[in-house]
Amino acid sequence: MRLFVTKYPDYHIVNLDALTYAGNLENLRDIDQLPNYTFCKADILDAAALDKIFSDHQPDAIIHLAAESHVDRSILSPLDFVYTNVIGTVNLLNAAKKLWNGNYEGKRFHHVSTDEVFGALGNTGLFTETTSYDPHSPYSASKASSDHFVRAYHDTYGLPVTITNCSNNYGPNHFPEKLIPLFINNIINRKPLPVYGDGLYTRDWLYVIDHAVAIDTVLHQGKTGATYAVGGFNEWTNIDLVKLLCRLMDEKLGRTAGESEQLITYVKDRPGHDRRYAIDATKINTELGWKPSVTFEEGLSITIDWYLQNTDWLKNVTSGAYMDYYKKVYG
Ligand code: TYD
Distance between CA 314 and CA 158 in Å, rounded? Predict the structure, then answer.
């Protein structure tokens, strides 16, 4: 959002968000007064609200990022993921189809998805745009379904769509349920760092701004109907990543080297846990010239600094309902 609002003063950007647990208007305080930005509180499950907002604002482009995105929550409540990720996506597709009514010149519906739709890799190989779908969690099953609907609306109705399937993101403002912000918060508070299983699960990490730039690139230059795999060329086993995070945080917090590593606690594995994700981002790189701009150490350092400078934000989002969720997942 910040990238688009500041980079394109001539675009009018409408932010449509239901403001569920991870949505937080505080995150956009620095841009919310800009003349090219409007916020609309709405749920993508509310088809009538979508029609009204689309008719009021007449968007030429829709970037669909609204999703339930946390695997552990999908294991607790799969239906929430079916509603938002599948039915919500179909509602948005219907609203776009109705608004544009076959006049697709200069229009674009961009769907933001995940590499988790491709399932799990062994020790070798990479996901590409042509990898078969093989989702394992209720979350990835719901995102796979949403991708299929987006392609179906292109193939059936000619809707001008593009899709990106991205690897794990990290960066400022990230709700502390995902690995990196959760562990930063726990290190700050000297709480245990719950590493699932043997800790040798592997993820490919991408700095969030680099993901935003990839979306911008595909929205403006991507071929209609095409999919682009987006990744950081940056694979880490969870345990190595956690050790790096502990080292960087000990340095920044002025703690003794090795202090935070003592918080590492191996816990029961996540059911259906995918062993390894890794993206081959050659297509977006060669076709559209996109590549990540920061190294992992740079991105992590910026991210940790942001959380250390925003402890009030962290306290606000980790009170109340967050503690209930935490108890349910971690006991
Ligand atoms: P996560 O951030 O939930 O992203 P995803 O499951 O979508 O890849 O998890 C990243 C990795 O970290 C994944 O292998 C699960 C693991 N993990 C833990 O070991 N402990 C935790 O508390 C969490 C949240 C994740």
Answer: 44
Nearest-angstrom CA–CA distance, 256 and 258 = 6
DSSP single-letter state for residue 175: -
Q: What is the dihedral of CA 266, 271, 276, 281, to 10 degrees?
A: -120
| 196 CB near ligand 1 (under 6 Å) | yes
pLDDT digits (tens, 9 = 90+) for 52-99: 999 999 999 999 999 999 999 999 999 999 999 999 999 999 999 999
* 139 is known as an active-site residue: yes
Pick from 193, 205, 309: which is nearest to 252 by CA?
Answer: 309
Q: Which amino acid is at 235?
A: E
Cβ distance 100 to 108 under 8 Å?
A: no
Spell out the domains of the chain, with CATH numbers in brackets: 2-320 (3.40.50.720)
Altogether, the residues listed in the chain come to a count of: 331
Q: Is the pLDDT of residue 320 over 90?
A: no
For residue 178, how far is its CA from the centre of ligand 1 (angstroms)?
A: 6
Mean pLDDT of 146-150: 99
Q: Model-level pTM?
A: 0.98
User: What distance in angstroms lies between residue 194's CA and the mean position of ligand 1's atoms?
Assistant: 10
Helix axis angle, 238-253 to 296-309, nearest 10°: 50
- The answer to whether residue 312 is catalytic is no
> Radius of gyration (Cα) for the chain, nearest Å?
20
